[in-house]
Target: Metaxin-2
Amino acid sequence: FSLSTAAEPWPENAALYQQLKEEQILLSDNASSLAVQAFLQMCNLPIRVICRANAEYMSPSGKLPFIHVGNQVVSELGPIVQFVKAKGHSLSDGLDEVQKAEMKAYMELVNNMLLTAELYLQWCDDVTVEEITHPRYGSPYPWPLNRILSYQKQWEVRRKMKAIGWAGKTLEQVLEDVDQCCHALSQRLGTQPYFFNKQPTELDALVFGHLFTILTTQLITDELSEKVKNYSNLTAFCRRIEQQYFEGHEKDSSAIAARSSKRSLLR
Model:
């Protein structure tokens, strides 16, 4: 980012783009979008959420969500954190080097375990693919384009799963990975309000995005959300962040919408 861009104040009309909330967005994209929204709320930076059927194709990287700030477009949490830092806002400045390394390691864990499990469930679990993923992913498009785009995406995700050694996993093994990840997060959080004590960092935003979305998304079975519900400190953590950063803010914020439309999130 150029220095001149960094120096410009945060504009009032900053926007975050994601897919259509009710009928299109999938669990993994919803979680990633909510993580970015939580991060920006924690930084006290206002953002409008704009839902577009073609959001994935509008993103310069093809990844979601992306933010449009001034004349800059930045996608995904990592790059957005860097962009916001260049503008003088950081949640992890107070951490020492060891803590920063630890925070990065836990963020890697969440992306490697939870995000990958969400993608696996959406695109590799046959029942979920047929009943939820294909209908939702293709919903904005006419037949046969809806099927073609869904199959293209499915092929892409399954190729990625093969590359990282997840293609041969059973659903049970994937749920076991999720449980291990939640166990590690629960241990690290303990009785603290946030992962690094009193103040939230980008790790808190990322964990909230994924866990809250898993807890409030209707899937074929409740097996995924049950794994999170086993850890009462993690569910309390999600409630705390929702209350502090989303309730009483804009009424259309994802967290509130997610809770009020719990039944229709992925159906």
Summary: The CA atoms of residues 214 and 254 lie 13 Å apart. Confidence is low (pLDDT under 50) at residues 251-267. The longest helix spans residues 97-124. Residues 15-247 form a domain with the Glutathione S-transferase Yfyf (Class Pi); Chain A, domain 2 fold (CATH 1.20.1050).
